Amino acid sequence: MSNLPIFDIAGSALQAQSVRMSTIASNLSNADSVAGSPEAVYKPLEPIFQAVTSREDRNLTGVQVKEVTQSQAAPIKRYEPNHPLADGEGYVYAPDIDPVAQMVNLISTSRNYQAGVEMLNTAKELALATLTMGR
């Protein structure tokens, strides 16, 4: 941890939002994918965040990705007998991904990431101003 914990806190926020952006990108990329069985369907991802606390004073010092979970939602079953991946009954299976909800999450994540960058820039400016106070 640095002498200015704001940099560690903001850095952890940027890392967490980066993971969230990656999971959203993966979900959107696979939204139209299909499989020949429910077991083979892409399962949407969701990061789980948890607060990180300082051992010394128990103050919050950032956030971390505890884990990235896979959705347990049932896949969408579609009758497409001519599809090359269709099962013996003519069905293909698609992940239950709502692209609109994913885009809303992406916008929120992008705003959170931007806030983290602004936090870093402000902290840097204040630290530099502090260093030049005695001049």
From TrEMBL:
What domain of life?
Answer: Bacteria
Q: Which residues form the Flagellar basal body rod protein N-terminal domain?
A: 8-36
Q: Which residues form the Flagellar basal-body/hook protein C-terminal domain?
A: 90-132
UniProt keyword annotation of DNA-binding present = no
One Pfam match, by short name? Flg_bbr_C
Which InterPro entries does this UniProt record tie to the protein? Flag_bb_rod_N, Flagellar_basal_body_rod_CS, Flg_bb/hook_C_dom, FlgC
What does the UniProt keyword field contain? Answer: Bacterial flagellum, Cell projection, Cilium, Flagellum
Q: Which GO terms describe its biological process?
A: bacterial-type flagellum-dependent swarming motility
Q: What is its main location?
A: other
Q: Belongs to which family?
A: Belongs to the flagella basal body rod proteins family.
The family database entries (PANTHER family) matched by this protein are listed as: FLAGELLAR BASAL-BODY ROD PROTEIN FLGC, FLAGELLAR PROTEIN
Which proteins does it associate with, and in what oligomeric form? The basal body constitutes a major portion of the flagellar organelle and consists of four rings (L,P,S, and M) mounted on a central rod. The rod consists of about 26 subunits of FlgG in the distal portion, and FlgB, FlgC and FlgF are thought to build up the proximal portion of the rod with about 6 subunits each.
- This one is known as Flagellar basal-body rod protein FlgC
Q: Which organism is it from?
A: Stenotrophomonas pictorum JCM 9942
Organism classification: Bacteria, Pseudomonadati, Pseudomonadota, Gammaproteobacteria, Lysobacterales
